[in-house]
Amino acid sequence: MKIVLKHVPLPEFQFSEEIPAIPSEEYERRLSALYQAAGTDWVLVFADREHSANLTWLISYDPRFEEGLLVLGRNGQRTLIVGNEGLGYLPIVRVPVDAELCQTFSLNSQPRVSAPRLKDVLAKIGLNSGQSACLVGWKYLETYETDEPSAPAFIPAFFVDVVRSLLGNSGKLVDGTALLMHPETGLRNLNSADQIAAFEWAARTSSAAVFSILTGTRPGMSEMQAMQLMRFSGQPLSMHPIFVSGKGEINGLRSPSGKIIEYGDAVSTGLGYWGSLSCRAGMMLGQPDMGYFEKVAAPYFQVVASWYQKMRIGATGKEIFQTVAGAFEGSGMHAMLNPGHLTSYEEWTSSPIRADSTEKIRSGMVFQSDIIPTPLPAGWLTNCEDTVAVADASLRAELKSNHPVLWARVQNRRKLMIEALGIELAEELLPLTDGTAYLPPFWLANELVCAVSKES
Hints:
Blueprint: E1 3-7, H1 24-38, E2 42-47, H2 53-59, E3 68-72, E4 78-82, H3 84-87, E5 98-101, H4 118-125, E6 132-136, H5 157-167, E7 172-175, H6 178-181, H7 193-216, H8 223-227, E8 242-246, E9 266-271, E10 278-283, H9 290-310, H10 317-328, E11 334-335, E12 341-342, E13 366-368, E14 373-374, E15 383-385, E16 387-390, H11 393-402, H12 404-420, E17 429-431, E18 448-452
Parallel strand pairs: 2-6, 4-5, 6-7
Antiparallel strand pairs: 1-18, 2-3, 3-4, 8-9, 9-10, 10-15, 11-14, 12-13, 13-16, 16-17
Helix pairs in contact: 4-5, 9-10, 11-12
């Protein structure tokens, strides 16, 4: 595969205020599916400000300041336990739930003495000795990490201890996090057409922000001034926005500072809204540096193109991992982490793409093409991260029927990738970001992009 520099006009990037909604009926199906999959008397889903994705997916509720605990029981019983400030946020919930106040969930020095303790609230709901329950946190442990992989892990010990005390020695308590987050079978990783439409809004808005920064940044601006070009409109983010610049060794994950951007700097920016992330990195140059292109940008784009061409339903994570490793051969670089991962309301849920993974790509998955090249020579950066969905014929037909404008955008993106960038795509791969795989190595010549040569 030969990579060349090619003039390709900038695609149209769109900021939109119309965020597709998830129907209430879908939340009902999600709650039922989780409870049935658990096979226990009770399912308890923990969330807090930093770990809200599972609860957001289940009922559209994301705790803004404190903890939340959703309790699911038999015959459709469901109770959302919140703190003081959670009470006022309850109208955002998209399905009927009983609400209980537990002031232990409230912040330090707030009123916390009048509402019952968590143990009392759970006992009132019906948890008692001899029953079974699964707790859902924000991560789970693999068998090689612990002697007890079934024990709840990433949930505050206080919550685990309270539930265990109610179930008693004759009860059963297990970790249910993988039911939602497993990279092949997790319920949250198999998205519906309506969920993909919501994530496409995030992808479109993230890429519009990133390219607004990329095309508008100039030497002499501060990093903070450059970041203001993202046109942030207040929607929840999936990551801390990034802008870095400099020469020599660069911390690629830090937030923007007051540093003045100079001509010749390496530059990188990235941000994500719920359901997506977009990132671009390159050089603050107006003329091609062919040494940089041949040693870094071209080998990296060969990897990116290979990843897109391999992504298809039924491929195993190991096959994709090996494809990426093979594409990196001879470059002196490799992927720092998993070459691609699943995304959702948090930036990273899990990933089937691992060296020994037999887990398969399935319809409904939404991926970040997140391939971080390392090591890079000092003073050089490159990155090209976008969001794609994988959809079988049935899911594609549903997207086309129910979201025709989105479907038209997807087809335009595929056309750009195939015809202009030379990347062959399986029919099930649906680009969600405008300008997917559109990588300008030199930000001051931003219509000069990496492409696969048709002669290669």
